[in-house]
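Worked problem 6 (solution included).
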Amino acid sequence: MLIALLALIGVLVALYLTLYKMGVIGTLVCQVGSCERVNTSRWATFLGLPVAAWGLATYVLLLALALAGLQGIAPRRSAWGLVLLSGWSVLFSAWLTYLELFVIHAVCMWCVTSATLMLLIFISSVVVLREELRGA
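Solution. The predicted structure is:
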């Protein structure tokens, strides 16, 4: 349930950033850091799509996997999927954080929030997988 909640929060954050990148939202509310500088940098696009859109898709998949596991639909596969997807996402988030700190020289509080959510999802999913493997 915790993973589903964290993924839902991630969906909302990534949707907000995606809508900004698509021009639906004019300016970002950013109390700390320089969100617009980060989100208008050349690094805010990956393989032709906004990084936030990739995050949105990832959070939606994580939410679906978490809900499937909660419903008892292939719980072991769901747990593995959560670990693999969130683990890859933590690595990607670390790369983006590196770019923010050392290349762009600006930090976006929404990006840090997303990276933190992803790390919490990864840690939680490792715990769930361990429980699944023990119960088998």
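Discussion: DSSP finds five helices and two strands in the chain.
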